[in-house]
Design brief:
- This protein has 407 residues and is α/β, with parallel strands linked by helices.
- The protein has two domains: 150 residues, Aspartate Aminotransferase, domain 1; 245 residues, Type I PLP-dependent aspartate aminotransferase-like (Major domain) (Aspartate Aminotransferase, domain 2, 3-Layer(aba) Sandwich).
- The protein contains 14 helices and 13 strands.
- The strands form three sheets. The protein has an eight-stranded mixed sheet, sandwiched between helices.
- α5 links the parallel β3 and β4.
- The longest helix is centred in the C-terminal third of the chain and has 22 residues.
- GO terms for molecular function: pyridoxal phosphate binding; succinyldiaminopimelate transaminase activity.
- One of its GO terms (biological process) is lysine biosynthetic process via diaminopimelate.
- This is Succinyldiaminopimelate transaminase.
- Its cofactor is pyridoxal 5'-phosphate.
- It holds the Pfam family Aminotran_1_2.
């Protein structure tokens, strides 16, 4: 067996199952989960129609790993409409089976474990695929903390110069999971300068880009590059997906775009890896990337939901409307510190909330690692507001009751 597999840590939801072992939720309440970031809004009918229409002919042959020209052109056209970015559909776009597998596979393409101290840098807290990609790619993970006082901006300045010197790849997540923070242009400029100086590749995970709460859409990595005159996208790759944008996590469809040299290498890797997308899924994806009406409606639903739930929870917890994404990153009251022996405050909060009110939230410490002496997720919980508004409001009401002083 690959000995690197033993380095992997349990996924957050496995740890959550262990935390809840022996807990009997209050039977007076129906179960509501805010734990998993799985979109629950309706899948657009036009997308389902396109998928069904393609099934008759779309399963008869082996698909090309590079995807059909129509899909690459649809992705490039969307980048132009959304970001004002021009890319070549032929050599700067590649369809992938969702951003999760692509992020992992891209790391295996880029990392060179024969180089002493090979390092992969990413935010802390983080999406656990980043860590797994580093470990299985033979690199050392380096965890960069998010700073609450700066709206959870990642503290890139805290990374020592000797770490940057051995960095081969950096994962950026903007809008962030779990904080929803969006990286501004000056931080992109900082990372580009570091990339030029040290030669590392930047992978920009942007799967939450279309769920946002401000008037201005979140800045993307390719868009930032163009604004800074970097139109060749050197050492830059962006990753996006239809899962959140179009409510089709089961479709497993997204694309990557950027540096043509990186696309060429990634295509070679994926040809051997077996990363081709089904022609039927490609046809549905063309329809999805070409339509914005369902995306606007999806964003409206999230905005209305967050506008109702956030102030309700803010009356009893430290929580605020994020820049983007569909999570609330909430601080747990200090009363939960040392509440249950052996458990952190966020674990105690999650366990007691399930037991008393049958609501599931994810402890923030499960989404981060202790680094430089601190776990930046400790004392917080992530709430995924993916269900219908009534269910999210009911869950929020129970949390308010849970935290309100007893008479």
């Amino acid at each position: 067996m690959n000995p690197k597999l033993s380095l992997l840590q349990p996924y957050p939801f496995e740890r959550l199952r262990q935390l809840f072992a022996g807990v009997t939720p209050n039977p007076a309440y129906r179960a509501i989960s805010l734990g998993i970031g799985e979109p629950k809004h309706a899948t657009p009918q036009m997308l389902k129609d396109a998928l069904a229409a393609a099934l008759d002919t779309g399963l008869a042959g082996y698909p090309a790993t590079a995807g059909e020209p129509a899909l690459r052109e649809a992705c490039a056209a969307w980048l132009q409409r959304r970001y004002g970015v021009t890319v070549s559909p032929a050599n700067q776009v590649l369809p992938v089976n969702g951003s999760r597998e692509a992020l992992f596979a891209f790391a295996q393409t880029v990392l060179d474990p024969t180089q002493a101290g090979a390092t992969l840098v990413f935010p802390n807290p983080f999406y656990q695929i980043y860590e797994g990609a580093a470990l299985l790619g033979g690199a050392q993970p380096y965890y960069v903390p998010s700073v609450p006082s700066r709206n959870f901006a990642v503290d890139w300045d805290s990374v020592p110069e000797d770490v940057w010197a051995r960095t081969q790849l950096i994962f950026v997540c903007s809008p962030g999971n779990p904080t929803g923070a969006v990286m501004p242009l000056d931080e992109w400029a900082k990372l580009f300068e570091l990339s030029d100086r040290h030669g590392f590749v930047i992978a920009s995970d942007e799967c939450y880009s279309e769920i946002y709460f401000r008037d201005e859409p979140p800045l993307g990595g390719l868009e930032a590059a163009v604004k800074l005159g970097r139109t060749d996208f050197k050492n830059l790759m962006m990753f996006t997906s239809l899962s959140k944008r179009s409510n089709v996590p089961g479709l497993r469809s997204g694309f990557v775009a950027g540096d043509a040299a990186l696309i060429k290498a990634f295509l070679l890797y994926r040809t051997y890896h077996g990363g081709a997308m089904s022609p039927a899924v490609q046809a549905a994806s063309v329809a999805a990337w070409g339509d914005e009406d369902h995306v606007i409606d999806n964003r409206r639903q999230y905005r209305e939901k967050f506008a109702q739930v956030t102030p309700l929870l803010a009356s009893v917890m430290e929580v605020a409307l994020p820049d983007a994404a569909f999570y609330l990153w909430a601080g747990v009251p200090e009363a939960f510190n040392h509440r249950i022996p052996g458990l952190s405050a966020d674990e105690a909060f999650a366990r007691e909330l399930l037991a008393q009110y049958n609501v599931t939230v994810l402890p923030g410490s499960y989404l981060a690692r202790e680094a430089q002496g601190v776990n930046p997720g400790r004392g917080r919980v992530r709430m995924a507001l993916v269900a219908e508004p009534a269910e999210c409001l009911e869950a929020a009401g129970r949390i308010v009751e849970f935290l309100s002083p007893r008479a």
